[in-house]
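User: tokens in, sequence out, please.
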């Protein structure tokens, strides 16, 4: 990232505290132990669009639920579809079996098949018996449209970029804004992209962590709400965004709380409440998907016994409510971090996505006594 981007603060660095629960050490999805994230960012060319050649403003983001062999040690997972105007792959088997068995990849809409090929290549490299003496594998790829800035027809994010994103995946602090799959994305009429946040439950509730990673590419400027303040409507010097929403959002929720797929689907639904806090209406043209997984449980590809005995958190009382609250708060803050961290970018045909004006935004929040 450029020096300018590194100077743009995250929400908490600017003094904005969202929600009530404490955050993890990094305030990121990687606060969930052993979760790893890697980006490949593709930026090339300027000027008029030449379909198939550029300019290129796209990338791949890979989320690894753990650092082991995911095909051999699957994790429980579930998907909530808030609005299904999207083109992901692997969701039917995820819904049927309730497990994640590859890294979760995010990319540009028309690149889904090429990125899926990278996930398949990775699975076969690490499990040479796939499709020969054992079953096939289910790659999970989700997408948002970066058509405003990027040459989508070129499908520039390819299998090798997915493999590289997996290779780069680490458990540390990750890049936000114009990084990986977020490179060409728009958010509430401003530059959007990747955002992340986490919440850690108090010891009395097990000390579990919920982390969120958002690929933010949705909303009109007038809808933007931060900490309850209608920031988008109050930024009067900025022109309104197009009347029709053309974006999407992918939310990935990770936790170390022992939950199976049915409970994880409940958790995923709460991610939609976090989106609503920022002003999302899940518009007609928006593909809004929330995926939740738990890496506290490992499900063997070839169980030694016909019956598995797996831990599962009791879904009642204040503990499950605290996890729901964590999902809402982490999702909300991840969206705001995507806005705060993204920087102005010019793409095809001179289209410019302006960064959220932080000085004006923070002044509006001060006036509303949110800072």
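Assistant: Sequence out:
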């Amino acid at each position: 990232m450029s020096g300018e981007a590194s100077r743009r603060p995250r929400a908490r660095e600017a003094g904005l505290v969202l929600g009530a629960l404490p955050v993890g050490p990094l305030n990121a999805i990687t606060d969930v132990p052993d979760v790893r994230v890697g980006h490949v960012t593709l930026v090339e060319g300027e000027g008029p669009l030449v379909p198939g050649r550029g300019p290129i403003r796209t990338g791949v983001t890979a989320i690894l639920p753990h650092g082991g062999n995911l095909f051999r040690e699957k994790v429980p997972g579930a998907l909530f579809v808030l609005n299904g105007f999207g083109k992901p792959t692997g969701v039917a088997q995820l819904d049927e079996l309730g497990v994640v068995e590859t890294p979760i990849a995010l990319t540009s809409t028309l690149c889904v098949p090429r990125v899926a090929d990278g996930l398949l290549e990775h699975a076969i490299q690490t499990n040479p018996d796939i499709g020969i003496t054992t079953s096939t594998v289910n790659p999970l790829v989700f997408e948002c449209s970066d058509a405003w800035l990027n040459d989508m027809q070129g499908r520039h994010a390819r299998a090798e970029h997915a493999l590289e994103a997996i290779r780069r995946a680490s458990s540390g602090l990750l890049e936000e804004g114009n990084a990986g799959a977020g490179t060409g994305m728009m958010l509430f009429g401003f530059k959007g992209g990747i955002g992340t946040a986490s919440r850690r439950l108090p010891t009395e509730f097990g000390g579990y962590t919920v982390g969120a990673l958002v690929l933010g590419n949705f909303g009109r400027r007038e809808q933007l709400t931060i900490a309850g303040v209608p920031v988008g409507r109050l930024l009067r010097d900025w022109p309104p965004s197009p009347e029709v929403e053309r974006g999407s959002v992918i939310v990935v929720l990770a936790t170390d709380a022992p939950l199976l797929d049915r409970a994880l689907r409940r958790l995923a639904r709460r991610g939609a409440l976090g989106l609503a806090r920022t002003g999302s209406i899940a518009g007609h043209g928006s593909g809004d998907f929330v995926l939740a997984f738990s890496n506290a449980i490992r499900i063997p590809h070839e169980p030694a016994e016909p019956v598995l005995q797996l831990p599962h958190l009791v879904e009642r009382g204040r503990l499950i409510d605290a996890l729901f609250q964590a999902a809402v708060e982490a999702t909300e803050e991840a969206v705001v971090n995507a806005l705060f961290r993204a920087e102005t970018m010019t793409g095809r045909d001179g289209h410019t996505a302006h960064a959220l004006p932080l000085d004006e935004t923070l002044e509006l929040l001060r006036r509303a006594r949110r800072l």
